[in-house]
Known about the structure:
The chain is an alpha+beta fold. It has 2 domains: about 1-130, no CATH class; about 135-335, Phosphoenolpyruvate Carboxykinase, domain 3 (Alpha-Beta Complex). About 25% of the residues lie in helices and about 30% in strands. It has helices at about 100-105, 115-130, 155-165, 200-215, 260-275, 280-290, 295-310; strands at about 1-5, 10-15, 35-45, 55-60, 60-65, 70-75, 80-85, 95, 135, 135-140, 145-150, 170-175, 175-180, 185, 240-250, 255-260, 315-320. The strands form 2 sheets. Strands 9, 10, 11, 12, 13, 14, 15, 16 and 17 form a 9-stranded mixed β-sheet that branches. It starts with a strand and ends in a 15-residue tail after the last strand.
Amino acid sequence: MLLYTVIPKILGINTEVKKIRNFSFGESLRERTEKALIKLNFKIDNLIKKPSILNQKYHFFWGKHNHPCIYYERRIIGGLFAKMLFKNSEGSPSIIVNKPYLRWIRVRTNNIFPPGTHLTDIATVKLIEKSFTPLHCAGVSWDNKGILIFAPPNTGKTLTSILLVQNGFKFISEDISVSDGNEIYGCPFTSTFRYYDKLSSKSTRYLNLIATKIPFLAPFIEPKAKVIQDYVERDKIKEKASIFAIVVLERGGSKFKKLDENEAFRRILNINRYEFNYYRNPILRAYSYFNQELDLNSLMLREEKIIRKVITDKNIYLIRENNPEEYIKHFKNLKL
């Protein structure tokens, strides 16, 4: 297997596949690496089966108290099963799935989660354990000053980050970032660009239109994968920056104002919890039942602590507009 970069120097994945659908930190795996603080393994194996030592049942999971493995098996249809084995080895946790699970389960269906969703939540847990937290925000920098741009989904983070880069800012991330409370680190292989007509090819716009009109087809419509390097020159991309300012975007009306830390924390935590649901992930819940060292409630508190650190003593602003292309006009009012 090859080790691919997900977050430079922080998170990597050992795998033989080039795309992991529903992996929030970046579905398309492009760049190989040799170093990563956190390494996950993602394997495909049609011969996986329940280890005999896992003899205790938790809903659709098999585990054993104080054992670092948990097995999942669920019928998809007829004789077709989704199978998964999670090994939480301390050095490099692994997810092993069979091909039918990877191929056919692309959205959450009857509490069957796509493999990429499990991988996202496991990666999130490992990041928090290492004192990082993922943030549902874009990131840019100006003169080495990092600006975090938070917003609910489909508000305009991605478009705003690209427009700012076109106006001289450096790109860090467009949808998801990671922070230790002091610095913002980019996730350069997320690709929500394709949902914006201004940034998409004609064929991609056509496929997006079909997905909008016929939503149940959306998981099976796959335009050619693109990442930020397909839109922005490499010399305009930064891996990280010190956090200087926070911006929260909203749709509706027109407003620019400063936010106090408590109100900013409330909104940002809400946005983060909407995007990252690791604390509700069934495999992690089942695993934590058998292994008390995985304390999901404690991880949620650690996540909150890092977010508090992110916003403490920072300039925090609210920008509200009806048209997402109008957000950038307010950035001249930031004290950079």
